[in-house]
């Protein structure tokens, strides 16, 4: 059955709802369960048979898959007219009586009834909505016929959401329906939560927290994370884009613009912090809003007016006003403030000497203020932890777990004391002064408290050395003195090794960081690129997987795909926690598979296929630039060279492929039509660039230079038939540096009947000796000259004994000379009178 799939990217621009600033828009409510697919992928489906279904919905979601309408036809078994829907896992039909039947697919419930008025599917003989089948819009972007609730569009599956009611009680809600729409390597998941009881606040995975009120229950709440970013939380009012601050004596206030926003998670509250800077990027103020699950929202402000005057205060989210400013010389407002321009004003309080942030036992503490005595004050988001740094030195503090007594150094910005997890943080939230090691940045507390390491010879269990929370709510853990070049897995909060696999580096002199706040980053244990049959296949990390197929067995994989999607290969690692052994395997999806040593070597590769980490060579490594076989040029072939681990030259002779290989040992092979087995085997001399194929009749094989000029030509000892009319030999460089042949034998056929053909011996050299010689004895390499045509065009003839001087010299420019008697038979036609009057021979 023919189908065509059309993929498109739909950009949906949504006007922000009341109370949401445009810079933070993204949470929208749409009536009738219509999903806004902002920055998402929509799969549009059509059929050549019929453009829309006659009996069923536009599309069907079942067991996480989207079944697209394919065509309308007749079921050969029931003889009923049906709409057919297809997905990779099977086929569904809805017949003319609106009954759904699964023709192929992994479902326990095989039937349902479709009500077009809903539209909705109902369990057979029941008024209950089907738990497995749900109508979906034709473009795959929305559920149809379901009660209003919450819809999540995300680039990873969403199974449940956590909810806090007005008493702060935590509960969990499992999704009611979901399905995925795949376009290329990207899958977007649509998840539906319904039958909700507002009001409550909730969170989906690592998303911000959102409010779902009674008024929200009248329209669908849509959270769209398909672009990779969650919409901002709707718990908080729209932040002001500008805060204004003025110090007594100034004529006008300084404007500080909103530059950054981050969330502050907590078990009984959820906060949002906004940072404001002036036009030059200098820090101005921090506005912090705290949404308390069981009480009203509160706000606070800390800042630095005029670059030096530090202050704290409170902020009323309802009236949008500031109060209780700690420094009487400072005024703060969301509107510009006019000053009197006078010289008054109190001297500014001492500047902060402590670090920008502190992390204590995994909780981040924010700087609050500095009093006139030079004491820096810090507190956590819930104010249950407080710390004071007195005059930049003595540290005291209190938390639910006890008191702290440390010493602070303003020179190094570090703490000294008994608590390893009392850590100074820089403005970016990174620890100051910790020893080098491996740092893991994680989305929540409890993850990464231990590592399992293995090099297949030794197994090591490592416990974390430092734990800290960052201002953005993420957590950092640090390990020091780990052994280098070990594979390792990271434990989750329950101790399971469910991370991707990584390799430890040498951290004795520099840090290594794995930022897993938004998911496991690309692993350094996986090659960034693999070459399959000489074609580059980059790592497709977005499709990596991890799992645990058995007790104590952990596994992960990632695919590699060529740019044109014609080649693919998957690497899979398996960790046996019983013996600490790590094994790697590869598979190509076509039934071929083997092992990888985790470093560079692939095993079990079938004949005709290559898998390497290195690209094929672009030029020969041992042989000449090119070859000529019986007049056909053979050029270097990178892919075949990589396959045979030799320099391979490829060309076409009489319509068939010809390969010649030269390996590093000088073995030469000629392949005809296929690389399965060579037709001829011989050797190659790297110095003379000559081939030796013994008595095999290979014809001629020439080594060519970079300009495709012959450098050396070899032939087999069989019959040699040259179809061309010219045979050239030798090579020399002319005055222009060009390679030129030394001699040529040319044949020119007769131009017409009755005329003579021409056989020519030619040389491009102006001066040269043409020498005829023979061996002094059979098989000897000692040659004796028989005849010579010298550069003066004299023909010199020597005796059989190998004279040093010619006995006969025929010089067309002067005369012939004979050092031997001339005998003329009687009745010859030599005029004896002319002979007796000529010069004496030899004089």
Description:
There is one protein chain. The chain has 843 residues and is an all-beta fold. Helix content is 1%, strand content 45%. It has two helices and 71 strands. The strands form 13 sheets. Strands 2, 4, 5, 6, 7, 8, 9, 10, 11, 12, 15, 16 and 19 form a 13-stranded mixed beta sheet that branches. A hairpin with a 3-residue loop joins strand 31 and strand 32. The protein is elongated. The relative contact order is 0.04. The N terminus is likely disordered.
Overall mean confidence score, pLDDT = 83
Which structural class matches the secondary elements? mainly beta
* End-to-end CA span: 104 Å
For the largest beta-sheet, the strand count, sense and barrel status come to:
13 strands, mixed
Helix content: under 10%
Count of separate DSSP helical elements: 2
Number of beta strands: 71
Radius of gyration: 44 Å
Low-confidence stretches: 1-49, 341-349
Q: Based on CA inertia axes, which overall geometry fits? A: elongated
Beta-strand content estimate? over 45%
């Amino acid at each position: 059955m023919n189908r065509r799939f059309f993929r498109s990217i739909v950009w949906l621009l949504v006007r922000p709802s009341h109370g949401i600033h445009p810079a933070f828009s993204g949470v929208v409510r749409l009536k009738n369960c219509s999903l806004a697919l902002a920055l998402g992928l929509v799969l549009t489906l059509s059929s050549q048979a019929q453009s829309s279904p006659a009996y069923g919905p536009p599309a069907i979601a079942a067991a996480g898959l989207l079944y697209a309408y394919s065509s309308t036809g007749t079921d050969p078994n029931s003889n009923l007219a049906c709409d057919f829907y297809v997905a990779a896992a099977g086929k569904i039909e809805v017949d003319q009586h609106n009954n759904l039947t699964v023709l192929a697919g992994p479902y326990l419930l095989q039937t349902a009834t479709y009500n077009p008025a809903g539209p909705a599917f109902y369990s057979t003989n029941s008024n209950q909505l089907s738990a497995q089948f749900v109508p979906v819009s034709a473009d795959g972007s929305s559920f149809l016929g379901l009660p209003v609730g919450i819809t999540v569009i995300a680039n990873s599956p969403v199974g449940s959401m956590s909810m806090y009611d007005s008493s702060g009680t935590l509960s969990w809600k499992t999704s009611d329906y979901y399905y995925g729409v795949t376009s290329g390597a990207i899958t977007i998941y649509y998840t539906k939560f319904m039958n909700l009881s507002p009001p409550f606040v909730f969170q989906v995975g690592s998303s911000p927290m959102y409010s779902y009120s009674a008024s929200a229950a009248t329209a669908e709440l849509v959270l769209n994370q398909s672009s990779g970013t969650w919409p901002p939380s709707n718990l908080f009012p729209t932040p002001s884009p500008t805060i204004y601050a003025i110090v007594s004596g100034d004529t006008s206030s300084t404007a500080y613009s909103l530059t950054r926003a981050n969330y502050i998670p907590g078990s009984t509250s959820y906060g949002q912090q906004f940072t404001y800077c002036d036009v030059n990027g200098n820090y101005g103020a921090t506005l912090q809003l705290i949404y308390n699950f069981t009480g009203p929202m509160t706000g606070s402000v800390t800042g630095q007016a005029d670059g030096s005057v530090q202050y704290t205060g409170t902020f009323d989210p309802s009236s949008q006003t500031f109060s209780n400013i700690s420094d009487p010389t400072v005024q703060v407002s969301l509107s510009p403030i006019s000053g009197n321009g006078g010289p008054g004003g109190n001297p500014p309080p001492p500047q902060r000497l402590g670090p920008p942030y502190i992390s204590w036992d995994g909780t981040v503490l924010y700087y609050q203020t500095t009093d006139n005595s030079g004491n820096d004050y810090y507190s956590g988001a819930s104010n249950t932890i407080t710390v004071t740094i007195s005059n930049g030195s003595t540290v005291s503090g209190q938390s639910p777990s006890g008191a702290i007594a440390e010493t602070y150094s303003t020179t190094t910005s570090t703490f000294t004391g008994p608590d390893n997890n009392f850590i100074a943080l820089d403005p970016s939230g990174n620890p100051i002064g910790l020893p080098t090691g491996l740092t893991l940045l994680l989305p929540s507390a409890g993850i990464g408290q231990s590592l399992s390491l293995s090099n297949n010879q030794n197994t090591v269990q490592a416990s974390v050395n430092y734990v800290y929370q960052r201002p953005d709510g993420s957590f950092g853990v640090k390990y020091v003195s780990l052994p280098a070049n070990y594979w390792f897995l990271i434990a989750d909060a329950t101790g399971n090794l469910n991370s991707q696999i990584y390799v430890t580096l040498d951290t004795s002199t520099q840090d290594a960081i794995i930022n897993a706040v938004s998911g496991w980053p690309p692993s350094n244990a996986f090659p960034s690129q693999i070459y399959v049959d000489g074609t580059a296949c980059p790592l497709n990390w977005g499709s990596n997987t991890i799992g645990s197929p058995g007790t104590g067995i952990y596994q992960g994989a990632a695919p590699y795909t060529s740019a044109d999607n014609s080649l693919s290969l998957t690497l899979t690692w398996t960790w046996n926690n019983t013996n600490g052994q790590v094994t790697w395997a590869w598979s190509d999806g076509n039934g071929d598979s083997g092992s990888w040593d985790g470093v560079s070597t692939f095993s079990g590769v079938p004949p005709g296929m290559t898998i390497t980490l290195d690209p094929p060579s672009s030029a020969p490594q041992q042989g000449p630039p090119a070859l000529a076989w019986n007049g056909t040029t053979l050029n270097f072939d990178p892919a075949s060279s990589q396959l045979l681990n030799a320099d391979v030259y490829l060309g076409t002779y009489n319509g068939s492929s010809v390969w010649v290989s030269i390996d590093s040992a000088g073995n030469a092979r000629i392949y005809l039509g296929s690389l399965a087995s060579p037709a001829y085997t011989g050797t190659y001399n790297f110095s003379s660039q000559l081939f030796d194929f013994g008595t095999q009749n290979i014809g001629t094989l020439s080594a060519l230079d970079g300009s495709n000029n012959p450098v050396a030509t070899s032939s087999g000892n069989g019959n040699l038939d040259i179809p061309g009319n010219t045979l050239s030999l030798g090579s020399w460089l002319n005055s222009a540096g060009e390679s030129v042949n030394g001699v040529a034998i040319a044949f020119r056929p007769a131009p017409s009947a009755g005329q003579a053909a021409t056989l020519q011996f030619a040389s491009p050299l102006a001066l040269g000796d043409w020498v005829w010689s023979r061996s002094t004895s059979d098989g000897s390499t000692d040659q004796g000259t028989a005849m010579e045509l010298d550069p003066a065009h004299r023909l010199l003839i020597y005796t059989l004994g190998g004279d040093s001087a010619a006995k006969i010299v025929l010089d067309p420019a002067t005369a012939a000379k004979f050092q031997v008697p001339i005998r003329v038979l009687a009745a010859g036609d030599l005029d004896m009178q002319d002979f007796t009057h000529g010069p004496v021979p030899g004089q």
